[in-house]
Specification:
single chain, alpha/beta, ten-stranded mixed sheet, 9 helices, DUF72, UPF0759_sf
Length: about 260
């Protein structure tokens, strides 16, 4: 259970204490959450030393999911993947045992190219989990599902405005859910009904010993923090194990009632 990123200025004074220096935000985040999804690697791939520093600054049980560089997914559009994947792994593997799934988010205007996806996925070592988020409707075919299953990659389950935006295929032994924007108030919060639905869907698809990575990407106003805490509370109430989340003020400890 985590969020997509941790460096949001409007989280200061809410999640981050006013006087906490920004250079210590990762430590504060990792004390509250056990995982984070790093989105800035998509725009600019950090140097290996940066990944190594993140490992040194976080607890031994912390997990960092990393979004693949857009150079492969949006510029190369999955063509000639060997060099981009090698460069990415050459840096991100400095996380060591902190490295979680690698997220491949494909462009919304990239039609299905199952052969290119297969060629990309086979470049990842067996011990690196990969989650794929296609966004063009032409990907929703048996051929796509077959490649994901064969390469043991997860299809990302995604939500926008409280509705699934992709098929809920189980393609391997772990799940990956991204929640982009809810329709509760204040925007972009998620409501109790929407969150409870996702708790049930994950529990129906994955066993207690199969991890499901859940990241809230609705960062404005700290909505991601509040919703992650609410999601964890609903999951625990339903009897499911959940990784740590920070405490929340009583008014924010449960999900919004609408949406």
């Amino acid at each position: 259970m985590g969020t997509s990123g941790w460096q949001y200025r409007d989280w200061r004074g809410g999640f981050y204490p006013e006087r906490l220096p920004q250079r210590l935000w990762l430590e504060h985040f990792a004390a509250g959450f056990a995982t984070v999804e790093v989105n800035n690697a998509f725009y600019r791939l950090p140097e290996r030393d940066t990944f190594a520093a993140w490992r040194a600054r976080t607890p031994t049980d912390f997990c960092v999911a990393v979004k693949m560089s857009r150079y492969l997914t949006h510029i190369k559009r999955l063509r000639d993947p060997a060099e981009p994947v090698a460069r990415f792994l050459g840096r991100a593997t400095a996380l060591g045992d902190r490295l979680g799934p690698v997220l491949l988010q494909l462009p919304p205007n990239l039609p299905a190219n199952v052969e290119a996806l297969d060629a990309t996925l086979r470049l990842f070592p067996a011990d690196v989990r990969v989650a794929v988020e296609p966004r063009h409707p032409s990907w929703w075919t048996d051929a796509t599902r077959g490649v994901l299953e064969r390469r043991r990659a997860a299809l990302v389950w995604a939500d926008r405005l409280g509705r699934p935006v992709a098929p809920r295929w189980r393609t391997t032994d772990f799940g990956y859910l991204r929640l982009h924007e809810g329709r509760a108030r204040p925007w972009p919060r998620y409501g109790r009904t929407a969150l409870a639905s996702w708790v049930r869907r994950l529990a129906d698809a994955f066993g207690a010993d199969e991890p499901a990575y859940v990241y809230f990407n609705n960062d404005p106003g700290g909505a991601a923090i509040v919703d992650a805490v609410a999601f964890a509370a609903l999951a625990r109430r339903a009897g499911h194990p959940v990784s740590r989340v920070p405490p929340a003020p009583p008014r924010d400890a449960v999900a919004a009632t609408d949406g």
